[in-house]
Amino acid sequence: MGNVNADFLNQDYDLELKQSKDLGPINPLINRELSWISFNWRVLQEAYNKKVPLFERLRFLAISARNLDEFYTVRVAGFRQMVKNKIEVISADGLTPEEQLLQIEREAEALIEKQQDLLPSILSNLKQKGVVLVKPKEILASEKRNLENQFMSKVFPALTPLAIDPAHPFPFIPTEGSALALKLKSRDGKKSLNALVPIPGMLARFQKLKDGSKGEKRFLSLEDFIVIFTDKLFPSYRLEEHFSFRILRDSDLEVEEEAEDLVREFEIALKRRKRGEVIRMKVTKNTAEPLLKLISNEIGFDREQVIQVNEMIGLSDLDELIISTKSSLQWKTFVPRSPERIEDFNGDIFSAIRQKDLLLQHPYETFDTVVSFLEQAARDPNVIAIKQTLYRTTPDSPIVKALCEAAENGKTVTALVELKARFDEANNIHVSRELEKAGAQVVYGFMIWKTHAKLSTIVRQEGKVLRTYTHVGTGNYHPDTAKIYTDLSLFTSDATLGRDVTKVFNYLSGYIKPTDLESMIIAPLELKSSLINMIKNEMSLAKKKKPAEIWIKLNALIDPEVIDILYKASQSGVRINMIIRGICGLRPGIKGLSENIRVKSVIGRFLEHSRVCVFGNGFQLPSTKAKVFISSADWMGRNLNRRVESFVEIKNLTVKSQIVNQIMAANLADKEQSWVLQPDGEYRRHQFNENEPSFNCHEYFIENPSLSGRGRAALNAPPTLLKPTNKRKKSF
Question: Rounded to the nearest 10 degrees, how much is the dihedral formed by the CA atoms of 472, 475, 478, 479?
C-alpha cells in the first residue's frame, strides 16, 4: 500500500484503501480490546512526535500509562476472572477469554516497553531545557545537608517503615499503590532484615529541589528520596538491595440491585473495590530475585506474571514535572471565546437563546456559558424549576453550586446523579448529599442502566406562559474536562425539544416511559433500532440511484448489529465517512464488504469527544436538507442497550450548517492529526509530500469562531470549509 490520504473531505475514495491481494481471509470484526490498545498506541505516538511541544509529549506519555492502568483494572481484570472461573464467552470476533487475554498481554507488554524506551530521551531533552529529574548519584555532597532537612520535614513524618517477618503482618497496598522493598544488613553484620516502605499516595511523586546554579528546575522522585535517606528510617542498618514496585487491583464495582439504601450500598462497594484482587505488579529492573519472590508471595501474586521495567514505575505521574514557568514547552495558550450573541444581549443568556438556537464547541468556546446558564437561572425570580443530569463533575463544581443556590432560593430543583459513573462514585455520593442538604430533589435513575445523557432544562415564567430553555450536551457537566475535551453544547428554547427532555426526566424520576418524542430519541428504548432504520433509508436511496451518504463522528464503534448494517449500506452504494477516535470494530475498504467506508482517528491537542451523525437524506453532503444529530452515545452495546442516552435532531439551519460545514468538514479535512484505519486493522498516518499544505482541525477551531455564536459581529460569509448544497443529481 502507498501513502494514505487523511483528507476525506477533498479526496475521492482512495484505491489505496482497497483490500490488498495478500490480506487473505480475515474476520470482518476487529477485536474490541485490541482496538483499544491500538488507540493507546496512537496516543503514545504523540509522545514520540517531535512536532509536539516537549511538555505535551511528556503528558501524552503519562496519559498512555494512565489509560493502560485503567484498562487493566477494569477490562483485563474481567478477563482474568472469566479465565479463572472457566467462563467461555466468545467475543464478537470469535475469541475465547483466554485467547483474548494472551493477545492483550502480548500487546500491552510491547506498549510498556515502548513507554520505557521513550522515557530517557524525553528526560534528556527536558534536562537540556532546564527541567531536571535528578538521580541519586547526581546529588552533590554540598547539598545533602539541605536535602536531609527537606526529607525530615516534608517526607519522613509521612513514612512508615515495616519489617517483613512473621511478627509483622504484611501491609495492605491499595490499587495504584507503590512501595519500596528493602534488604538491609545490620551495621555489625550480624542481622539481616527485609523491610517495606509504603509510598504515601498523597505526597508529590516528584519532590521539588532547590534550583540549580543555572536556574534549572530540579526534581527528585519520592522513591529515590527515600533510598538516599534509608539510614534515617533504619539507623542501625545499611542498605544492600532494593526495588520499587506498584500494583493494580480489580476495580470493577458490584452493587446489590435490591439494596434499600443505594448510597450506602455504593459506599460499601467502594471499600470492597480498594481491596480487589491484584491483577498486575510492576517492579524496577535488576530486582533481587529472593526479595522479589518474597514480596510477590506476600501480596499473593504469581511471580511469573510480575512485569520488570527498565526505567521507572508509575509513568502516569510524569505530568507532575510540567511547570507553568516553562510555557515555551507547552501548547500555545488561547482564550476560549465567549459567544458574541450573548454579549449583544448584555450577558442575558435567556434573551440570546430566545432569539435563536446557539451551539458552542468546547473548549474553543468557553464552558463558562453553561455555568452561567444555571447561575442566571438560580438567581432569576422568574425561573420556577430546574432539572439536571450529572454523570461526572468536579468535587467543587460550579454547576452543583448553582443548583444548590437555586434550591435555596426556593426553586424546584431535580438532579439526576449517576452513582455508577466508574471511578467517580465517591464524588457523586458527595455531590448528591450536598444537593439534598440544599433542598434539591435527588434521584438516581435506574439500577440496571446508567444515565449517561447530558441534559438540563430551565422552566421560566414569561408573561402568561411557561417557557422551557434546554441545554443538550455531548460531554459531561465537568468544567475541567471541558478545557481539554471537544464537545458540543446546544442551547434552545424550542418547545418541542423542551417537551421531549421533560418527558425523559419524568422517565428517570418516575419510570414514566416517554411516548411521542418529536425531536430526540433515547437509548436503550429506541436508539439502536432508529439508527438502523436511518441507515436503511440511505440504502434505499442508493438503490434508487439517489445520493446516499453518511458522516459519523464517535469515540467508539463496536456494536456488531450496527456494524453489520453499515457493511450492508456500503454494499448498497452508501458512502460512509467516519471519525472514530478510539475503539473501532469495523474494517473499512474491503472489496465486496466495506469499500465505500472510510475510517480515521483524530489524535492531537484535544481529546475528541463529541458525537455527531449526518445522514444525507437523498442529498449530496454537505446539505441543509441533511438530517443532523448530536448525541451522548457511542455505538457500543453498553450505550445502546444498557444506558440512558440522548440522540437529538438539529433543526436550526445555522446550527446545522455549523455542524456540517465547520465541525464535521474540519475533522474530515484534517491531515496533521489523523490516522487512517486500514483493512488489516492497522492505523497509518498521513505522509506529507514536499510543499504539501497541512491542515489541523484543532488549530482551525481555535482561529475561527462558530457560526451560531456570532451575533451582530457576524460577517456576510462566516468562515466555513464548505458551502451547503441541496443537489440530488450525483449518484454513487
Answer: -90
Annotated active-site residue 452? The verdict is yes
Question: Is the full-model pTM beyond 0.85?
Answer: yes
- pLDDT given for residue 719 in this prediction: 53
Instruction: Output b/e per residue, 68-82; b: 16+ Cβ within 10 A.
Output: bbebbbbbbbbbbeb
The Cα 313–Cα 308 span in angstroms is: 9
| Alpha-carbon distance values, 147 to 155, 320, 366 (Å) | 11, 20, 43
Alpha-carbon distance values, 577 to 307, 597, 600, 621, 682 (Å): 40, 6, 8, 11, 17
Alpha-carbon distance 621 to 546, whole Å?
Answer: 12
Provide the CB-side half-sphere exposure for 608 (13 A, CA): 31
How many whole angstroms separate alpha carbon 36 and alpha carbon 556? 9
| C-alpha span between 79 and 83 (Å, rounded) | 6
The 8-class DSSP code of residue 72 comes to I
Domains defined along the chain, listed by start = 15-27+522-713 (3.30.870.10), 32-102 (1.20.58.310), 155-209+217-312 (3.30.1840.10), 340-516 (3.30.870.10)
- Say how many Å lie between the first and final Cα of the chain, rounded: 25
Residue identified by cell 463533575 is: 393
What are the residues facing 134 on neighbouring strands? 220
Task: Give residues with Cβ within 8 angstroms of 433, minimum separation 6.
Answer: 263
Residue carrying C-alpha cell 505521574: 317
Interacting residues of 521 by C-beta distance below 8 A, sequence separation 6+: 527, 530, 646, 647
Q: How far is residue 491's CA from residue 353's CA, in Å, rounded to a whole number? A: 6
- Please name which of 491, 708, 726 lies closest in space to residue 624, comparing C-alpha atoms: 726
How far apart CA 29 and CA 580 sit, in angstroms, is 15
Give me the average pLDDT of each 10-residue run along the chain (732 residues): 82 63 74 96 97 96 95 87 86 91 94 96 96 91 88 95 87 90 93 94 93 90 95 94 92 53 52 70 88 91 88 94 89 92 93 95 96 98 97 91 97 91 73 92 87 97 96 96 96 97 94 92 97 98 96 97 98 97 96 96 97 96 92 96 96 94 95 96 90 92 81 53 48 29
pLDDT at 58: 97
Angle at Cα 559 formed by Cα 554 and Cα 564, nearest 5°? 105
Out of 452, 471, 478, 698, which one is annotated catalytic? 452
Cell triple for residue 261? 439504601
For residue 714, the model assigns a pLDDT of 54
